[in-house]
């Protein structure tokens, strides 16, 4: 089911004064522990919704907060599952949508839950196809990787994260910022930078600017071993990223000599470093170890 933008019902966005007033009315003073920085600029949420390209999608939004982005997404999505950990924000969201987008209220399902603990069965009848979220900063990478793991129907998404995290998520082998988040995200999806967002559009104003990361799911590499085994190699290689793989993987393999044997069997130079390896190469190393 898609929605014709020409006839789609509209929603009334939240501006700066309204964001503060709504938070006050429900007794929320934003906390750092929950990464509560609310967007109060209607142009920013319109832009995020446009770049997300989630028209006709069943969207998962993590951390809807006061509903700024939710209101921008609802006019064109098929359905939206909003997963919010703060019960006061979750309880207020249906009322906000009923008030500002009354014709769209039945497209929204609100779940009061920790996004790190949900799985597909928690959401509802529609298989989710897109993730669009201004992610809570402190758990952004674990949430993204968790949802890609437990929601196999997610085809694409757009997430807003700290600029530094956006750089890491979208880095490729050989880059200074390539690391565990980049390699693990590459297992699931092709990711690309999709713009930046200045800190001034948030309340309260954070210490850093934000970046948008767009991703499209891809077939995972098929080394013959599972994701957990491959991610163990990624973690071991980057735990000592300045060391050669022969040394960095010594404990994982049992000894540097065994690491060298596995690396050679995988066709990977034992003198290379993890930061130069593709996710396919990490997969080959895991498979070579399990092949014995
Ligand atoms: C950066 S704010 C974004 C709020 C809103 N989407 C916006 O753009 O204004 C992050 C939101 O995620 C919520 N949150 C934090 N940790 C969470 C978790 N583990 N699961 C679900 N929601 C979480 C916070 O309460 C907050 O509402």
TrEMBL record:
Q: What is its main location?
A: cytoplasm
Q: What class of enzyme is it?
A: transferase
Pfam families cross-referenced by the UniProt entry = RrnaAD
The compartments listed are: Cytoplasm
- Where the record annotates domain Ribosomal RNA adenine methylase transferase N-terminal, the positions are 44-219
Per UniProt, the keywords (alphabetical) are: Cytoplasm, Methyltransferase, RNA-binding, rRNA processing, S-adenosyl-L-methionine, Transferase
Task: Quote the cellular component terms of the Gene Ontology held in the record.
Answer: cytosol
What reaction(s) does this enzyme catalyze?
Answer: adenosine(1518)/adenosine(1519) in 16S rRNA + 4 S-adenosyl-L-methionine = N(6)-dimethyladenosine(1518)/N(6)-dimethyladenosine(1519) in 16S rRNA + 4 S-adenosyl-L-homocysteine + 4 H(+)
Q: Entry's InterPro entries?
A: KsgA/Erm, rRNA_Ade_diMease-like_C, rRNA_Ade_Mease_Trfase_CS, rRNA_Ade_methylase_Trfase_N, rRNA_adenine_dimethylase, SAM-dependent_MTases_sf
Q: Give its E.C. classification number.
A: 2.1.1.182
Q: One GO molecular function term?
A: RNA binding
- Which residues are involved in binding S-adenosyl-L-methionine? 37, 39, 63, 84, 114, 134
Family in the record? Belongs to the class I-like SAM-binding methyltransferase superfamily. rRNA adenine N(6)-methyltransferase family. RsmA subfamily.
The free-text function statement in the UniProt record for this protein reads: Specifically dimethylates two adjacent adenosines (A1518 and A1519) in the loop of a conserved hairpin near the 3'-end of 16S rRNA in the 30S particle. May play a critical role in biogenesis of 30S subunits.
Q: What is this protein called?
A: Ribosomal RNA small subunit methyltransferase A
Q: Which organism is it from?
A: Actinocatenispora rupis
């Amino acid at each position: 089911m898609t929605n014709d933008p020409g006839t789609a019902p509209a929603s009334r966005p939240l501006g700066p004064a309204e964001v503060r007033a709504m938070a006050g009315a429900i007794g929320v003073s934003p906390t750092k522990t929950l990464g509560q920085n609310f967007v109060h600029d209607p142009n920013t949420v319109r832009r995020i919704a446009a770049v997300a390209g989630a028209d006709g999608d069943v969207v998962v939004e993590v951390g809807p907060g006061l509903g700024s982005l939710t209101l921008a997404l609802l006019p064109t999505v098929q359905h939206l599952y909003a997963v919010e950990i703060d019960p006061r924000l979750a309880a207020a969201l249906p009322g906000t949508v009923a008030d500002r987008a009354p014709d769209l209220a039945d497209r929204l399902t609100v779940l009061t839950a920790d996004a790190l603990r949900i799985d597909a069965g928690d959401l509802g009848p529609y298989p989710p196809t897109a993730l669009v979220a201004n992610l809570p900063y402190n758990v952004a990478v674990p949430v993204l990787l968790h949802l890609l793991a437990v929601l196999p129907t997610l085809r694409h998404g757009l997430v807003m994260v700290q600029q530094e995290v956006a750089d890491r998520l979208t880095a490729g082998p050989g880059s200074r910022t390539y690391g565990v988040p980049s390699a693990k995200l590459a297992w699931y999806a092709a990711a690309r930078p999709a713009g930046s967002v200045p800190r001034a559009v948030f309340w309260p104003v954070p210490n850093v600017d934000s970046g948008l990361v767009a991703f499209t799911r891809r077939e995972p590499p098929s080394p013959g071993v599972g994701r957990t085994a491959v991610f163990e190699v990624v973690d071991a290689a980057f735990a000592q990223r300045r060391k050669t793989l022969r040394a960095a993987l010594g404990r994982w393999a049992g000894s540097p000599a065994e690491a060298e044997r596995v690396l050679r069997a995988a066709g990977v130079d034992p003198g290379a470093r993890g930061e130069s390896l593709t996710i396919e190469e990490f997969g080959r190393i895991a498979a070579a170890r399990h092949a014995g």
